[in-house]
Amino acid sequence: MTVHPPSEEALAQAFKALADEVRLRILAFLRNPEPSCCRLPGEVCACDLEAYLHLSQPTVSHHMARLVQAGLVRAEKRGRHVFYRLNPESVLALAQYLKDLALKEEP
Predict the structure, then answer these.
(1) Was domain 8-101 assigned CATH 2.40.10.120?
(2) How far apart are CA 1 and CA 27, in angstroms?
(3) Quick one: average pLDDT of 23-28?
């Protein structure tokens, strides 16, 4: 898988999205979701996130919108439900950026 470097704007948006403990919990849950009523392989229904986080639907929607806008999560609406899954390419691009930053050689 080729990882393309994100723009500075995309990096800033992603790091802002990650600067919230609820969103970090969401990403961890999406990586390894617990069995639930609507979960499909590789994705999670919004109602499952509400139950897992013990938060209201509007609050979960707010956090998910931030993660989707940052490109860290993909969303797909099917009927009344929205299903979410991690966007591994974006997560890997962030990890690669940080790795390159940390390992940059001094002139």
Answers:
(1) no
(2) 21
(3) 95
